[in-house]
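Quick entry between incubations.
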Amino acid sequence: MNRKARLSHYALFMLPAVLLLAFFVIYPSVRTIYISFFDEEGHPTLKNYAEVLTSRDTFNPSGFKRGFPLGTLLHNLIWIGIHLPASVILGLLLATLLQNMPGSSFVKSIIFLGMVMPMIVGGVMIRFMFDKNVGVVNLFLQTFGIEPRTWTAYPESALFSLIFGSIWLWTGFSMVLYSAGLETIPKEYYEAAQIDGAGRFRQFIAITVPLLKPITTVVVTMTLLWELKVFDIVYVATMGGPGGASNVLALQMYTYAFREFNFNRSAVVAVIITVSTLAASIPMIKSSLAQE
Amino acid sequence: MKKRKILKIIRITVMWLVALVWILPFLGVFMTAIRPMDEILDGWWNFKVFNPTLENFSKAWTHPTASLAKGTVNSLIVAIPATVIPLLIATMAGYGFSRYDFPSKKLTFVLIILTLALPQQMIAVPVFQLLNAFGLVDRYLGLILIHSAWGIPWITFFMRNFFSTIPRNIEEAARIDGASDFLVFFRIIFPLALPGIASAAALQFTWVWSDFFLALITIYSPEKLLATQRIPLMRGVYHVDWGLLAAGAIMVMIVPLLVYAVLQKQYVKGMVGWSLK
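Done. Structure below.
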């Protein structure tokens, strides 16, 4: 078969995928960018961007004095600032701790449960564990003499409750990836290091961490994407409340579009999220292009 | 030698402590679901009175405004076709990708990774308007099509990696015997790819089942709502009926949990393979 005929054959293999993507992914994305630059009467404008970026929903400087809400942009940043290092490091430590331990596959399954269940259920669980009456977090805090309260219902603690809860949900992801990565490191490396007199900690820093770097790229990227897109757990646990104190970008977009029916503004928020997620995935694109 | 033993004991203790911390919230939800409301008000960890009951489950299953029986059926009606369709389409595309170097291959590949990063919010409004124009809002067909399209990039990516591990000489032999590309694909490649397809199917199914956002913006009628959409409705307006909510949460969780339990190996493989080479 000649080259041209082969090309048309393989194009046929890809045609259905291309069509569906064009209709339901590519066209809508382009259209969202487009409407973000138009006002409700259909005139081109930058007004939507100005409005959204100066809105208190997005960034609320007075929050620094008066407390939450600080605006969705900062809320997502705080989420990243706590959740990213915590879940990545915890995942790596757990993977190391559980390697070659009897009963570890059972423990891994438990930790991984958070990744398996629908995030909407995850949100219910978070709301549940921080509840005044039935929450296990309060049982724990009471032993330190802290009064029980529903932590998700107060502006100053709502966002942090969600973030800590989401660490519990997400750590299974980095743990499983790191566990798979640890299996690929040859034992000889550690044996050689031991002969050279390197201790456990030194081995961890000098062998384990650098050799797991490709996995760290993936884990960090995926975790960042998850943090920037977080929606379900906020929707069900606090609805962004109280008073917007735990609102996030994805929920802000939903509220603008499907509660206030301001499609132009919602498009701006969607573009902001997308620009951030695309920026976050650059390292992964680079590394996978390098491997081609 | 003694120091080693102590270290090992510490390690085991820490491991089970971690397991305990992680399982406590699940245990809490489970205990709350199987006990009457008045027993858990002082915390589900109090076992002075303990009368386990399945009442919460039957209440959630037949809930007057958010029946999970109906929700489960609806979710299956969406999740099954939204798994089969993209798997078939994306497996073909992944094969095309792995076997032919056409000019814009690299560019297309970057585009696929970019769509992996894309938030659903980016397509929400135009997709809604598109479905509206075709009369597909509040119809499962519309939601199934979006899910199929949404699943294609990562399944293509995943299957392409899988196909690169299948040696080409098997197909070449069949081709010399005169088999067409499509015949080669469906007779030889597809069966060989079944392990990969199983992993992808497990992930795609649980993702569609677990989806909340796409369902939220496309399905509105109370009787058509999917299982995940019914969970927030169970919360109640004035007070939270934790027993009911816990039972509902468990029932919505159980389907992806079963998929995970049965296909554990494929599931983890899928997850690792999807994010790694």
